[in-house]
Amino acid sequence: LKLFFLSPQNMRDKVINKAVYAFYSFHAGKTIDNTGIVIAVSLFEQMVHVQGDIGVNKYFSQIYNSYDTLI
Predict the structure, then answer these.
(1) What is the pLDDT along the chain (71 residues), one digit of tens a residue?
(2) Among 56, 65, 17, 8, which Cα is nearest to 40's?
(3) Which of 9, 19, 27, 49 has its CA 20 to 30 A from that of 37?
(4) What is the pLDDT of residue 3?
(5) What's the CA gap between 70 and 34, in Å, rounded?
(6) What is the pLDDT of residue 8?
(7) How many CB atoms lie within 10 A of CB 67?
(8) pLDDT of res. 6
(9) DSSP 32
């Protein structure tokens, strides 16, 4: 029932916030080559968010104009 009261943007924001929290909680940003990555799968919101470190983001930003094209 709670799913019907949340806007798609609100659900997306919740998934992204949880992914960023997990990224820093697991110290994924402290890898040697800045290649840490967290793949957050939210069953409730039925969404996936990939949170990458600086090195990963730099690589994919050269290939794709938007991270949304990845998912």
Answers:
(1) 465 677 888 889 999 999 999 999 999 888 888 889 999 999 988 899 888 888 887 777 776 655 555 45
(2) 17
(3) 9
(4) 57
(5) 20
(6) 85
(7) 14
(8) 79
(9) T
Paired tokens of 29: 């940003």
CB 48 within 8 A of CB 42: yes
Q: What is the pLDDT of residue 29?
A: 85
Cβ burial, residue 26 (10 Å; 0-12/13-18/19+): exposed
Structure tokens at 30: 């402290």
Both tokens of residue 68? Answer: 């949304």
Rounded to 5 degrees, φ, ψ at 26 are: -90, 5
H-type alpha helices, 1-71: 8-25, 54-63
Quickly tell me which residue has 């104009």 as its tokens.
Answer: 65
Estimate to the nearest angstrom the gap between the alpha carbon of 13 and the chain centroid. 10
